[in-house]
Amino acid sequence: MPQRMYRSFQGLLLLGLCIFFASKAASGQLTWYINARFVPLTLFGIVMLAVLAQIIFSEIKRSRQRAQDGEHDHGHAPASSNLWFMLVPLLIGILIPARPLDSSAFATKGFNTNAPLVSADSSALLFETDSEEHNVLDWIKLFNYEEDVTQFVGQKASVIGFVFFNEDLSENQFFVSRFVVSCCAADGFAIAMAAEWDEAAALQQDSWVLVKGSIEAITINDRRVPMIVAESVQEVPVPNQPYLFP
């Protein structure tokens, strides 16, 4: 492949990656892939991709000008196979629709009703916030790191997650589930909080719901874990931020 053609494809791929990541940032889907704390670094990367693409296009323009003046480029382009390392991830990102992890990932990742991989450092702060502001991870933290869980029984709760049915629960119970992401979606692990509702059978697997009710303590796999006795269950859209961060 001629060097100028190679550089043209290289510039187009860099520009394509820049546009792809910029579109994900603009749509709010960037955090479907990475932890929110890495968004500023990714935005910096988007700018750098644009700068590199501009440098390559400027170089191509100068090369064409030199050719018109009778000069010749004597450099050799690297193997064209190198371009595939840039093209493949771009094609995967474009062709595979973006969606947050759901229960289909449980087959490989499993799920936890406690939070063994999450630090207890922030659990003390949870006592300073209203119980209805706790999310699924917050409740699991409290039950995982506090010996006396009876202090939480009867507290009001309001959590959002996707529905997951499991044989560990009865017919009128289900799990309200979320994925916790430390770095990116690849290292995400699922957590689940039990809920009890008389109309649980009417819910659809993986549908997102807002569950409001009061907290009870139940035993699953020999551990005391939280359960919401639901007063209401309302279907909601997928949140702008479907993942929780430890």
Index terms:
single chain; 246 residues; alpha/beta; OB fold (Dihydrolipoamide Acetyltransferase, E2P); 2 domains; 5-stranded mixed barrel; 5 helices; 7 strands; 22% strand; elongated
Query: CATH superfamily name of the largest domain?
Result: Nucleic acid-binding proteins
Unreliable sequence segments: none
Shape, per Cα inertia axes: elongated
Separation of termini? 48 Å
CATH topology of the largest domain: OB fold (Dihydrolipoamide Acetyltransferase, E2P)
Structural category is alpha/beta
User: Rg, please?
Assistant: 25 Å
The counted number of beta strands is 7
The helical percent reads 25-40%
> What fraction of residues sit in β-strands?
15-25%
**Element order: H for helix, E for strand:** HHHHEHEEEEEE
- The CATH class name of the largest domain reads Mainly Beta
Largest sheet: number of strands, sense, barrel closure: 5 strands, mixed, barrel
Strand order of the largest sheet: 2-3-4-6-5
How many structural domains are formed by the residues? 2
Please give the CATH architecture of the largest domain.
Answer: Beta Barrel
> What number is the mean pLDDT?
85
The helix tally amounts to 5
Q: How would you portray this structure in words?
A:
The chain is an alpha/beta fold and 246 residues long. It folds into two domains: 3-95; 103-244, Beta Barrel (OB fold (Dihydrolipoamide Acetyltransferase, E2P)). 33% of the residues lie in helices and 22% in strands. The protein has a five-stranded mixed β-barrel with strand order 2-3-4-6-5. Helix 1 packs antiparallel against helix 2 and helix 1 (3-27) packs parallel to helix 3. The chain is elongated and about 85 Å long. The mean pLDDT is 85.
